[in-house]
Amino acid sequence: MSGQTTGRTPGRRDVRPLRVSEVTVRFGGLVAVNRVSFTVEPGSIHALIGPNGAGKSTCFNAISGVCRISSGRITLGDVDLGRTPPHRIAALGVGRAFQNLALSPTSTVFDNVMLGRHALTGGGFLGHGLRAPWLRRAARRHADRVAEICDFLGVARYLHTPAGVLPYGDQKRVDIARALAVEPTLLMLDEPAAGMNASETAEMAALIQDVRDELGVSVLFVEHDMGLVMGIADRVTVLDFGRLIADDVPSVVQRAPEVIAAYLGVDDGQGQPAVKTRAGGGFPGTGGGNGDPATSPRPGRDGRAEPDSREAMG
Ligand SMILES: Nc1ncnc2c1ncn2[C@@H]1O[C@H](COP(=O)(O)OP(=O)(O)OP(=O)(O)O)[C@@H](O)[C@H]1O
After folding, report:
1. Which atom of ligand 1 is nearest to the CA of 28?
2. How confident is residue 83, by pLDDT bands cut at 50, 70 and 90?
3. Where is this region: Disordered (predicted)?
């Protein structure tokens, strides 16, 4: 991946910490996120993990303004994001790529990525029909930047191709390009390796590291592939049933008894999973199972097994 990048840094904004402080999100009587606090440090790769229904997506939605927090505070630097609409949050420097690609399949890659740019431009210069010379110059600058971002993501050759005909892995890259088009200081990735094979996952890992190292952008990602998480994250926050159960470096998190128990549903009290009760389950470092919690059943809120339909992803 590194060979495909331009190495150009945006240098447009200071990268600031994202602080999630005592955040609670309720849906009626259900507490989906329960007084959760963590900080994404500037220039870090930070993973948010947890079994199905743990509250990861809700937490992501709260940070990107898609759902309202019931209490607590979310700040980027000293800017309060907690009650800010999504388009403003994007303009403030938070770019988000989605698990289910948020691309228009019939629009070109260029147009899809330019759409991401509209958080910066307000869509204004296009709406004026490019009559004034300064509007044409602005449009050219934005077009050049879109091309640069696509080059960085390794999808520049598809610039004028409808996004929908690209291979899945390349569509993922275009979606990340769209998120980077807002010139974010924080990039949020929702299950970036979902549906990818081992070599595509390795390329995605390299890409995420390039975003951090070459663009200086912090990355917060939700992921079920524990190999990817433990391989690239500087810090890992673990949720279970809406509560934070661990927040530390990967080597500590993967040995935390609460984390092992959350993924396997059982703990023998010594921090060791009772794997015999969870066929195929396991968490890296525990010696239990295939190392991919996404393939493991886990107890539901009512204590019954809650099978996960996800495919094993490495
Ligand atoms: N819009 C909503 N209305 C009601 N309940 C919701 C809503 N969104 C999520 N929930 C519930 O909140 C809890 C947390 O869900 P969330 O999707 O955040 O978990 P998750 O960790 O992202 O799970 P997964 O890994 O399966 O995507 C679940 O019990 C879910 O059913």
Report:
1. 4
2. confident
3. 271-314
Residue entry with tokens 């331009």? 6
Q: Does residue 218 sit within a domain?
A: yes
H or E element: which one contains 34? strand 30-40
Q: How far is the CA of 150 from the centre of ligand 1 (A)?
A: 33
263 pLDDT above the threshold of 90: no
The string of pLDDT tens digits covering residues 108-133 is 999 999 988 877 766 555 555 556 66
ipTM over 0.95: yes
Domain coverage including residue 185: 2-104+142-240
CA dihedral 276, 277, 283, 288 (to 10 degrees): 0
Q: Can you give the length of the chain in residues?
A: 314
Q: At 298, which amino acid appears?
A: R
Please state, as a whole number, how many other Cβ atoms lie within 10 Å of the Cβ of residue 245.
18
Distances (CA, A) of 230 to 37, 89, 143, 173: 21, 29, 37, 22
Greatest C-alpha distance within the chain: 71
User: Residue 94: beta bridge partners?
Assistant: 186
Select from 56, 225, 311 the residue to mutate for testing ligand 1; criterion: most ligand atoms less than 8 Å from CB.
Answer: 56
- Residue 182 placed within a domain: yes
CATH number of the CATH domain containing 57: 3.40.50.300
Distance 207 CA to ligand 1 centre (A): 28
Number of domains in the chain: 1
Nearest CA to ligand 1 atom 12: 32
The reply to whether 75 falls in a domain is: yes
Find how far residue 36's CA is from the centre of its chain: 17
- The pTM score is 0.82
